[in-house]
Amino acid sequence: MSLLHVAGLTKHFGGVVALDGVGFTVEAGEVVALIGPNGAGKSTCFNLINGQLAPDAGGISFDGASIVGIGPRRLFRMGIGRTFQIAAVFQSMTVVENVQMALLSANREIFRFLRGVPRRRRGEALALLDRVGLAGEADRAARTLAYGDLKRLELAVALANRPRLLLMDEPAAGMAPQERADLVSLTRRVVDADGTAVLFTEHSMDVVFAFADRILVLAEGRLIAQGAPEAVRADPLVQAHYLGTTTDTEDGP
Ligand SMILES: Nc1ncnc2c1ncn2[C@@H]1O[C@H](COP(=O)(O)OP(=O)(O)OP(=O)(O)O)[C@@H](O)[C@H]1O
Ligand SMILES: [Mg+2]
User: Fold this and answer.
1) What are the chain's domains?
2) Which of 12, 39, 44, 147 is most exposed, with the fewest beta carbons within 10 Å of its own?
């Protein structure tokens, strides 16, 4: 049984068909890239899986049970994590406090933090920061971090909930090519150690082909190819729709 199973997923926005009968699976521990040109439907697909949007048709099951109609908070509790935009990091807190908050939230202890027990789970938070290479920045205010470090903090915060599936929509957007590769390779190492599955989007093909186990290719709301990186790279349909039309460092709008 697949960890995530998506079938016939369809979503319209007015007259726009953002997703049209998309089906795929993600296995436990697998790192899968969802690629495609701007407007292909990637973010829509993420928002359907994490419960922010409801599908017009199709099914989504996680760990064998349908999750259609379940909201983001409950899905998060069930083990579907996501990296948020930077705004989700508490800028006024220190780096380690952000991770402590995430750990307390994951363990339903948040009220204790608010009642002034700021050292709770600090050791655990420091261990997580160490895993993402941020132990040295633990006591800095989060707002003083460089962008690339903020992205690592975001990853540590997401991992605090021990997700079984982590959804990452353009985690490396806005970063320089080398930083992108570093962030995705770090993510790959950390999730491999935990057996966490990842579904991610990324516009840099170098990064996608280096770190994904499998690639799904969307174009105009339809899945036009899927498979191992080498097979997808060689696919004529993919080359026609996508690989010939994007630069290596292009971001979404
Ligand atoms: N909330 C919305 N209302 C109306 N149209 C939308 C909405 N969200 C997405 N769309 C449309 O659905 C299509 C798919 O958009 P989506 O954001 O899923 O693409 P994407 O693959 O994530 O693109 P990008 O690479 O630019 O991030 C596009 O035509 C987009 O304009
Ligand atoms: Mg998008």
Assistant:
1) 1-79+164-172+199-253 (3.40.50.300)
2) 147
